[in-house]
């Protein structure tokens, strides 16, 4: 090879290596530029979001305080921060960087939160600001014997707009993944998602209240209702037997009490008062429709309400506009707002009920004070009437009362059914419509419903624990597990001293001191019942029933004093269905423990 040819080859080789190095340098330069661009914009976006947080608190204070100008200024400021954060995290360079293996998850998380904040700020905050000075806790104060529903009617459109914006922001936030995200950012995202979900729940409830309450309080004409006061000492799926039935009328915001009767005074009927829908008869028996005290055996409160309304109509010839149920624990929260009430003043039965003693007085002490069931029912009725009378008079702290009803709703101690189809449709989107449990976004919610089988008031001593898990087992795949543990909190010595009316005195074949409980677990529509495993304690064989789109597992357990029973109910998800596990549980006297735990496959797979 000539020296000239060698020189040419050397120059080409050198030129090729030079182009490679230039290309590498250019790529590195682009990467550095993108990193710098994204890094700077990320820091600026984070700064905007941090600055938005105190402004949100300012808006809240201004709205509550009636400062319209301050609320409007805060809204404009918060919108600027949110929009700038969104703009900084949504340009083409940022989107390209989101595809990077390490930085990508972090960048996507930041841009997702920014997009959520912008959706809320741009579409809903003006509506929130417009409520300044127009809607507060005092809106719900009873004045002149009535609640003025006009502010609720006026606020409904703004609340609907605010709720739509919050739901849009919450939906975006739910899609933000924290997998592969650095811990500080992941924690901040989790906090943001939790806060947005909380606020979204509030705006949803407020919007629905503004839609429902005016009509249900008789804004367009009188409405009549049955209020079922449940007794948790004798459990039913919705909370307890209807111990007292109150008839009320609502007319232009004024609620009057027309009559009150013991639940035991309705029935028995020779056959169900109306046809039982679904497999109610198979699960809970025809007694569901034959006794007022058994209408709440089914967790389907719409069916319970129709049965109660039919029993009322059969007895008095009156149709009602709706049915409401609540229990003595709910009365406890209400008494925190009203203060003490005196029952049967000037008589030997005179009692002062407070938030501290109302549950014990109504569900335990009454049975030792009064030997006759008629006397016990009369005291229960008088107590309910005294509390409702104080409510109707408006003698309560509105802010405390709103908090009480929020807690009552969260604990499923309040159920509402309306005879109006549009109102039923709105109620069906809330927890107020009763069971079976409804799954929220990204979850599979189960129902654990308990019913007394002792025929007495022994559930005052029942303690319930529920553990939830989602094991993945190689032989069967992903599973949902509900572990239900029931405990009889009595000692044998305490059981021997119980009044016969509390223990049941063996009337229904259950020995004194034993608690018999029927347990019914309802799966979500996205799962099928798999199997049941009795871990400890004796339980009857579990039977499987299909109730509409729900797989139900049901069993009965007897617990002697001090005894516990633990049963694991296993459900299989339908193909393509998933979500975090959650559960609704029959509201009880004693707090229910709900925990998440890890189950080994040999614990749940037969």
Helices, strands, pairings?
Layout: H1 3-65, H2 68-88, H3 92-97, H4 103-123, H5 125-130, H6 150-174, H7 183-216, E1 223-231, E2 241-251, E3 254-262, H8 280-284, H9 301-316, E4 322-326, H10 328-338, E5 341-343, E6 351-353, H11 358-369, H12 373-392, H13 398-410, E7 414-418, H14 421-427, E8 443-452, E9 462-469, E10 472-473, E11 477-478, E12 480-488, H15 492-496, H16 500-503, E13 515-522, E14 527-536, E15 543-547, E16 550-559, E17 564-573, E18 580-585, E19 593-596, H17 601-604
Parallel strand pairs: 1-4, 8-18, 9-19
Antiparallel strand pairs: 1-2, 2-3, 4-7, 5-6, 8-13, 9-12, 10-11, 12-17, 13-16, 14-17, 15-16
Helix pairs in contact: 1-2, 1-4, 2-4, 4-6, 4-7, 6-7, 10-11, 10-12, 10-13, 11-12
């Amino acid at each position: 090879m000539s020296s000239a040819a060698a020189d040419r080859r050397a120059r080409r080789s050198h030129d090729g290596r030079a182009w490679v190095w230039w290309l590498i340098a250019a790529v590195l330069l682009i990467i550095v530029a993108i990193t710098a661009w994204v890094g700077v914009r990320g820091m600026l976006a984070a700064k905007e979001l941090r600055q938005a947080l105190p402004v949100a608190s300012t808006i809240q204070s201004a709205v509550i305080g009636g400062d319209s100008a301050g609320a409007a200024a805060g809204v404009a400021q918060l919108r600027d921060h949110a929009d700038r954060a969104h703009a900084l995290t949504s340009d083409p360079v940022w989107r390209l960087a989101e595809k990077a293996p390490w930085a990508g998850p972090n960048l996507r998380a930041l841009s997702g939160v920014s997009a959520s904040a912008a959706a809320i700020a741009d579409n809903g905050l003006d509506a929130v600001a417009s409520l300044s000075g127009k809607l507060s806790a005092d809106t719900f104060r009873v004045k002149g014997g009535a609640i003025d529903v006009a502010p609720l009617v006026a606020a409904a459109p703004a609340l609907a707009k605010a709720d739509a914006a919050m739901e849009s922001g919450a939906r975006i936030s739910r899609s933000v993944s924290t997998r592969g995200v650095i811990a500080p950012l992941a924690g901040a995202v989790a906090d943001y998602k939790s806060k947005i979900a909380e606020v979204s729940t509030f705006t949803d409830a407020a919007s629905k209240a503004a839609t429902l309450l005016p009509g249900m309080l008789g804004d367009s004409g009188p409405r009549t209702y049955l209020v079922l006061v449940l007794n948790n000492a004798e459990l039913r799926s919705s909370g307890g037997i209807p111990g007292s039935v109150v008839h009320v009328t609502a007319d232009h915001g004024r609620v009057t009490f027309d009559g009150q009767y013991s639940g035991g005074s309705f029935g028995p009927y020779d056959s169900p008062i109306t046809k039982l829908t679904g497999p109610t008869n198979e699960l809970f028996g025809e007694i569901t429709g034959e006794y007022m005290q058994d209408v709440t055996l089914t967790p389907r409160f719409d069916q319970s309400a129709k049965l109660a309304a039919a029993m009322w109509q059969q007895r008095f010839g009156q149709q009602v506009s709706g049915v409401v149920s609540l229990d003595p624990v709910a009365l406890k929260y209400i008494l925190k707002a009203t203060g003490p009430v005196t029952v049967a003043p000037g008589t030997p039965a005179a009692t002062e009920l407070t938030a501290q003693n109302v549950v014990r007085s109504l569900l335990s002490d009454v049975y030792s004070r009064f030997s006759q069931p008629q006397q016990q029912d009369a005291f229960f009725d008088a107590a309910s009437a005294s509390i409702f009378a104080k409510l109707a008079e408006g003698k309560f702290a509105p802010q405390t009362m709103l908090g009480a009803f929020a807690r009552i709703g969260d604990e499923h101690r309040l159920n509402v059914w309306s005879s109006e189809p549009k109102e039923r449709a709105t109620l069906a989107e809330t927890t107020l419509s009763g069971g079976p449990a409804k799954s929220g976004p990204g979850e599979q919610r189960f129902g654990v419903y308990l019913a007394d089988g002792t025929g007495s008031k022994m559930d005052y001593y029942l303690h319930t624990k529920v553990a939830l898990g989602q094991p993945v087992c190689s032989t069967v795949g992903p599973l949902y597990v509900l572990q239900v543990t029931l405990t009889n909190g009595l000692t044998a010595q305490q059981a021997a001293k119980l009044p016969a009316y509390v223990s049941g005195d063996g009337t229904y074949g259950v020995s004194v001191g034993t608690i018999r409980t029927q347990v019914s677990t309802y799966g979500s529509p996205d799962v099928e019942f798999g199997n049941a495993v009795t871990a400890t304690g004796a339980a009857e064989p579990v039977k499987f029933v299909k109730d509409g789109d729900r797989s139900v597992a049901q069993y009965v357990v007897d617990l002697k004093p001090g005894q516990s029973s633990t049963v694991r109910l296993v459900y299989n998800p339908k193909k393509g269905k998933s979500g975090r596990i959650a559960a609704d549980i029959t509201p009880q006297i004693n707090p229910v423990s709900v925990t998440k735990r890890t189950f080994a496959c040999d614990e749940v797979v037969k």
